[in-house]
């Protein structure tokens, strides 16, 4: 006799999945046909997915259906890659963890992640991590750019405890994706907030100052204070998906606020006369760094299409 369970995917390795159900956590495979069902990403089932599982008499479990997602965060491995990858689904918010050094996170990566969160309607807070290792001036400069754009920025350090209580408060009662490059301290932060969790963290390799991909599979953990956090493997490239050039500026909140003052309703904010965005960049209302990112994304996407 076959039995059906519903549950939430809490760990995805690509070949098997852990699903939290009323009857405990089941280790499941997926049915071959599920892979073929018009899902465009390379990973058809992701952490956060609500799924139906079928158990057979041998005690084997298989995911047979995935409920429509309320949202998700998706990326291309690189701008030129055709493969898209969903990082997590059905989340209340994302925390983007950034270190300015040890290791250095590229501004381009930050802006692409933020654009994707805007496009897929995922609220995002930026965590400036390892503040004990950073130059105070660099932290202040970064914070100014992103707060002016409209983002919430928290400075955190597990070494000094700075910002940890605020992060805890932000996580409470919500399902949160934590993402960022490898070695920025995602797993360490989660373990600091909930020391009971069994999470592995890594050492930064001395020679490169880069992380070594300690976390290999995305995993959702329940927090003792309420809510869930999804710790993910570090990612490097973040290519945009399904975002047209013409709408890209909609996903820069600071351009969105100003762009309606442009002379032309279909202004691309690149070369047009009477462009309020270009004027704001010149006058300091919009960060030149963020505007550069915008131009670069337009350019990269063009290259991708050719
Ligand atoms: N000085 C300092 N070191 C930190 C801090 N947070 C994390 N680290 C160290 O940074 C290294 C990497 O931390 P992890 O938590 O494994 O990084 P991660 O982002 O989970 O990396 P991946 O799992 O590879 O994506 C470890 O050696 C941590 O001890 C911090 O606030 N200050
Ligand atoms: Mg980790
Ligand atoms: Zn314009």
Kindly state the mean pLDDT as a whole number? 90
- Work out the helix count: 9
The CATH topology name of the largest domain reads: Rossmann fold
Determine the CATH superfamily of the largest domain: P-loop containing nucleotide triphosphate hydrolases
Radius of gyration: 21 Å
Largest sheet: 5 strands, mixed, barrel
Strand order of the largest sheet: 1-2-3-5-4
Spell out the helices and strands N to C.
EEEHEEEEEHEHEHEHEEHHHH
| Poorly predicted runs | 205-209
Overall structural class, as computed from helix and strand content, comes to alpha/beta
What is the top-level CATH class of the largest domain?
Alpha Beta
Number of domains: 3
What is the structure about, briefly put?
With 306 residues, this protein is α/β, with parallel strands linked by helices. Helix content is 27%, strand content 25%.
Highlighted features:
306 residues, OB fold (Dihydrolipoamide Acetyltransferase, E2P), Rossmann fold, Ribonucleotide Reductase Protein R1, domain 1, 3 domains, two-stranded antiparallel sheet, 9 helices, binds guanosine-5'-triphosphate, binds zinc ion
């Amino acid at each position: 006799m076959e039995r059906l369970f519903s549950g939430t995917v809490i760990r995805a390795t690509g070949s098997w999945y852990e699903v939290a159900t009323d009857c405990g956590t089941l280790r499941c495979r997926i049915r071959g046909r599920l892979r073929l069902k018009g899902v465009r990403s390379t990973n058809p089932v992701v952490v956060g997915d609500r799924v139906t599982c079928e158990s057979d008499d041998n005690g084997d479990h298989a995911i047979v259906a995935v409920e429509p997602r309320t949202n998700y965060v998706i990326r291309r491995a690189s701008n030129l890659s055709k493969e898209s990858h969903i990082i997590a689904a059905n989340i209340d918010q994302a925390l983007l963890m950034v270190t300015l050094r040890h290791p250095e996170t590229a501004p381009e990566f930050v802006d692409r992640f933020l654009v994707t969160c805007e496009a897929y309607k995922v609220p995002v807070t930026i965590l400036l991590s390892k503040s004990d290792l950073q130059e105070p001036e660099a932290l202040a400069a970064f914070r100014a750019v992103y707060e002016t754009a409209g983002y919430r920025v928290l400075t955190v350090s597990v070494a000094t405890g700075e910002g940890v209580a605020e992060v805890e408060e932000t996580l409470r009662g919500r399902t949160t994706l934590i993402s960022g490059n490898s070695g920025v301290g995602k797993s360490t932060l989660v373990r600091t907030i909930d020391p009971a969790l069994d999470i592995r963290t890594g050492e930064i390799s001395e020679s490169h100052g880069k992380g070594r991909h300690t976390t290999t599979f995305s995993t959702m953990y329940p927090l003792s204070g309420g809510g869930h956090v999804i710790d993910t493997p570090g990612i490097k490239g973040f290519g945009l998906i399904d975002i047209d050039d013409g709408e890209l500026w909609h996903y820069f909140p600071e351009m969105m606020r100003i762009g309606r003052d442009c002379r032309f309703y279909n202004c691309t904010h690149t070369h047009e006369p009477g462009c309020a965005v270009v004027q704001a960049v010149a006058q300091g209302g919009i960060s030149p760094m963020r505007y550069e990112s915008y131009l670069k994304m337009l350019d990269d996407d063009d290259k991708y299409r050719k």
